């Protein structure tokens, strides 16, 4: 299988600070991709560069053969590359219904609005109960469901999740992990940043350790690794 | 009876004008997070464009809507030239105060150069007078009192019942997330300015129909609109609307009982009191967002 997303020697940062140093990776060749690594080493910056929130200083980002580096976030959403940012801040004073309508804003997603809404409700029945409620009144787990639901409304061809389980209670987290597995089984390839390595090992087929703004280690399918090895990657030898 | 009628009428009338102005300020603040100090100039320019069109021979029924549309364009251009290039800077709020003040000053003096200092007047919406509750009022003012709530209701419907309005409210709350659902954030910023400018222009047309126009006619309404948004809270558009009418009634009552001389001092007293007791405004929640 060809990779759906290829990041080629991307350098990016904020102002004079360079966060990503010539980073390269591929996604979609073996299935879902997991990114892990210490905080502050460029995972979120990489995702922001991929989704167009941040313009890379150099390098190419190929999505399904098309170079999307430097395109506007709006144009990238139009290609079906959808990014769920970290921290479920979302739109605090909009209702769930409003968020779903916004998710289907792009002309690519609009024709599939009803069908995608069904999918979201099936995946997160809890949201249907609170359909008219403002996002700020929801729990952390529910807000994360709204974030992911909004992204599904955008009719993704590739879904990027940035720490979907951050700050959630263990029980809620398990439910959410199960839902993310469901999305994957539904045929949408995923790129997931996650601190919970167990979850990543279960969900993804290929892992990248991002360290100091570059890929420190790639773990391909078939290459097993145990908990101890990952810990030593995190914390050094 | 006639005292009450006079205050009620004066309050409704002034409140209508303040509401039209304040809503535009609030719309720009909630979506872009900047304060537009050229808002008063939009009002003036709307009136002068309407006057010019009438002078060219267009009937008022054509000239006024055209002037409002022209003002939408002016708002868009102003946003693109003195606000958009600064978006993303850390000190944007302060910088935009300066750039919009400067742009306002340029436009004001431009108007002075083009149209001269002589006072002008544009036709009233409806000619004639009526007596209600013992108070003589012009039909023009009655028309303003009736039309303004309709326009504000239409704006509310647009923001709350259409997908484009939803997008404007979304941009107000989270810019990054708006990008990630594919909203054209730049265009929405332009739209917010365009709507604000056309509402201000319409307020100017209303005002030019019963009072003489001058290039500085926008500065006093801007000041009043500032009091309104501080009083009512700038983080929504419904807050400033209610506040505009309250301030209108308060002003009418003050000038009836204490005279015009004391009215500004009392208004600023209310402003200071609001800032001390409830600095986010009396109708505001603590977050930013249109509704």
TrEMBL record, chain B:
Assigned keywords, A-Z: Amino-acid transport, Cell membrane, Membrane, Transmembrane, Transmembrane helix, Transport
Annotated transmembrane regions: 7-29, 61-80, 92-116, 137-159, 187-210, 222-250, 256-277
PANTHER family referenced in this protein's UniProt entry, alphabetically: ABC TRANSPORTER PERMEASE PROTEIN (PTHR11795:SF447), BRANCHED-CHAIN AMINO ACID TRANSPORT SYSTEM PERMEASE PROTEIN LIVH (PTHR11795)
Record Pfam families: BPD_transp_2 (PF02653)
Similarity comment: family membership: Belongs to the binding-protein-dependent transport system permease family. LivHM subfamily.
Protein name: Branched-chain amino acid ABC transporter permease
Protein topology in the membrane: Multi-pass membrane protein
